[in-house]
Design a protein that fits this description.
hydroxypyruvate isomerase activity; globular; 251 residues
């Protein structure tokens, strides 16, 4: 499995977006055998074939959101995973974003409050992630850190945090240094990829990850950084940047 491959590559932790097609007992066995920590999973996406990508902010799907939350909580408990990304979902087809935005935000806030109370009893942090609507997903409801921060303020639960995927933040807003500084108090998880190709951090692109890593460290970020990128070659070959980074850090 991918957990075994991650362990073989030297990782001590993994994130696994959707693992609901995998046998839970087998996942538990592999996790125990490798000692690899599962640090993040996503709520189920809904019906992908019908165009779903999460249900948290989708009007009329509240019961399905709660069912998905129950399933993700079952996996999180079994794998001792302490973070769940609560996916917002897409603006419904044939709907105008501006017209439905207020209703979708209200649904999302209520669903997040419900989830926060349940997750807090388990010591689990809920996360919401802005996904860019310029390249990756034009219909995704949550698309900027500013929108996400405003929603988290309305939710008002300490175990609800912001998931910062630097790839999406750069595409939607740029201004990364100030945005990181502004939102670090509510950032609960970080993901990385180069822009615009979504490849390894050291591949050609807009971002200087040595600078961004230093920024996160200097500002006091203590959490995990997920490598959510598409390798240009093999996965193992693409990990050369990590080895080089740590070699440089030790010098």
């Amino acid at each position: 499995t991918r957990i075994l491959a991650a362990a073989a590559a030297g990782f001590q932790a993994v994130e696994a977006a959707w693992l609901y097609d995998s046998d839970l007992q087998e996942l538990q066995r592999v996790r125990k055998a490798t000692g690899v920590e599962v640090v993040l999973i996503n709520t189920p996406p809904g019906d992908i074939k019908a165009g779903d990508l999460g249900l948290g902010a989708v009007p009329g799907r509240e019961a399905e959101f709660r069912e998905g939350l129950d399933l993700s909580l079952k996996y999180a408990r079994a794998l001792d995973c302490k973070r769940i990304h609560l996916m917002a979902g897409r603006v419904p087809v044939d709907s105008d974003r501006a017209t439905v935005a207020k209703e979708m935000e209200a649904v999302f806030v209520q669903n997040l409050k419900y989830a926060a109370d349940i997750l807090s009893k388990e010591g689990i942090t809920g996360l919401i992630e802005p996904i860019n609507t310029r390249i990756t997903d034009p219909r995704y409801f949550l698309d900027s850190p500013h929108q996400a921060s405003a929603i988290l303020e309305k939710v008002g639960k300490p175990n609800m945090k912001l998931q910062m995927d630097i790839f999406h933040w750069q595409i939607m807003d740029g201004n990364l240094t100030q945005n990181i500084q502004k939102y670090i108090p509510i950032i609960g998880h970080v993901q990385i990829a180069q822009v615009p190709g979504r490849n390894e951090p050291d591949s050609a692109g807009e971002l200087s990850y040595s600078y961004l890593f230093d920024t996160l460290e200097n500002i006091g970020y203590q959490g995990y950084i997920g490598c959510e990128y598409k390798p240009q070659g093999s996965t193992d070959e693409g990990l050369g940047w990590i080895r080089e980074y740590w070699t440089h850090r030790k010098c």
